[in-house]
Amino acid sequence: MPASDALISSIRAQEILDSRGTPTVKATITLQSGARASAAVPSGASTGSNEAVELRDGDPKRYFGKGVRKVIAHIEGEIAEAFKGRDVCNQAAIDAALIALDGTPNKARLGANALLAVSMAAARAAALVRGEPLHRSLCEKPSNLLPMPMFNVLNGGLHAPGSSLDFQEFMLVPMGAPSFSEAVRYAAETYHAIKELLIAQGHSTAVGDEGGFAPKLMGGNQAACELMVRGMERAGYRPGEDLAIALDPASTSFYKNGRYHLSRSGNQVLDSQEMVELYQGWLNVFPIVSIEDGHAEDDWAGFAAMTRQLGGQIQIVGDDNFVTNTRIIQRGIDEGTANASLIKLNQIGTVSETIAAVRLCQKVGWGSVMSHRSGETEDAFLSDFAVAVGAGQMKSGATARSERLAKYNRLMEIEAELGDRAEFVNPYR
C-alpha cells in the first residue's frame, strides 16, 4: 500500500495563455495530504505531421477555434475520475494508464495536451512526496549533467514571417564555456553585441516568437551567419572556440513539390543534394556544429545523404521527422538519417515516453537535444527534465522573453544546487 500522502485526491485544469497569446492548459494535482503540484504545456508552430494530437475546441467564436475547454473537461472529468486514489509516485504506471485511457495511437481522443499536463503535474507531485527537487526525483539514477545550451539569436521562417530569413533558427552555442552559468553570460553578451550591430546598420531589433531578432538582412540566411560571427567577435569571443553556430532551417516549411524554395534568400530553388552542398559550403566558412531539420520531414533520402556527407563533421538533428517517437527514431537509426534527435515533451505526450526517447538515443550514441516550443509558458519543467535524464543539450530560445529565461534561470539554479557535483561538457568534441 502506498503512503496516503502519495495518493491523488483531485485533478483540476485551467485555460491559460502561452507566450503567443494562444490558449493552452495548466493542470493541478492535489494529493490526499493537501500538497499541490501544477504543470503547463507548451504549443508549437512548426510541427511534424506525426506529432501526438494537440486537442483544440474548434469554436470560431472563442480564440479563433484554439480554446482548450474540451481539454479541461477531459482532465477534470474522465481523467480525474480514473486517477483518484492512484499512487502519484509511479510515473510509468501513471503514464501507461493515461495512454490506455485515451486509447488511440496518437492521443487524439483526450488530447496530448491533456495527457502531458497531467503527466508533468504527477511528476512534480511525486517530487513533493519524496522531498526532492524534480531533477533528482524524476529518474531512478538522476544525472548531474547540465545541458549545453543553444541560444536563439536570429529568428526566421514561421517564427518571424516579416524577416528576410527562410531558416527558422540561428543559434549561439557557447561550447567553450566552463560552466552553464558562464555559457549564459557568453550568449547574453553576444546577443547584446548583435543587437548593437543591427542598430548600427539601421535594422529593426524586433524579436520573433523565441526572442531572437527578426531583421531584414540583405543576403538572407548566409548574412545571418556572418552577423553572428561578427557579434561573437564584437563581444570579445573567438568563433569556433568560445562560441559556435547551430541552425534549425525547419526545412519542411519551404519544401514544395520535391524542391526547397528559399524565397527570402535570392529565390533559390534547390533539390536535396543541392541543400547538402549549401550546408557543406557554409561549414567551410562558418563555425557550425549542429543542423536540425536540414531536410523536410518526408525527405528521408535527403537526411541520409546529409548524414553520409556531413555527419562526421557536425551533429545532424532530426525533429519534425522523428517527433520524439521511439518507433520513428529507431527507423532513423536503422537507415542512418541523422546522428541526433530533438526531444520535445509535447510531441509524444507523456513524461515516460519522452524519457524512453532520450534513452534510445543514448543507447546508440546519438545526441539528444531537449527543446522548448515556440508557444511557451513560464513553466521550467524542461530544465529539470534535461538534467535528470542527462540529455547533454537543450534549446530554449534567446536570452530574452521571460518564458525563455525561466528555463535558463532554473538551470543556473540547479547548477548552484549541485555545487561541485555539477557537470558541464562540450558534446561536439
Automatic annotation (TrEMBL):
Molecular function terms from GO: magnesium ion binding; phosphopyruvate hydratase activity
Pathway(s) where this gene product acts: Carbohydrate degradation; glycolysis; pyruvate from D-glyceraldehyde 3-phosphate: step 4/5
Catalytic class of the enzyme: lyase
Matches recorded under PROSITE patterns: ENOLASE
GO cellular component, one term: cell surface
Binding site for Mg(2+): 248, 292, 319
Ranges where the Enolase C-terminal TIM barrel domain occurs: 143-427
Active site residues per record: 210, 344
Listed GO biological process terms: glycolytic process
Keywords of the record: Cytoplasm, Glycolysis, Lyase, Magnesium, Metal-binding, Secreted
Cofactor, free-text remark: Mg(2+) is required for catalysis and for stabilizing the dimer.
Subcellular location: Cytoplasm; Secreted; Cell surface
Annotated family: Belongs to the enolase family.
Biological role stated in the UniProt entry: Catalyzes the reversible conversion of 2-phosphoglycerate (2-PG) into phosphoenolpyruvate (PEP). It is essential for the degradation of carbohydrates via glycolysis.
Name of the protein described by the UniProt record: Enolase
Organism name: Thiomonas intermedia (strain K12)
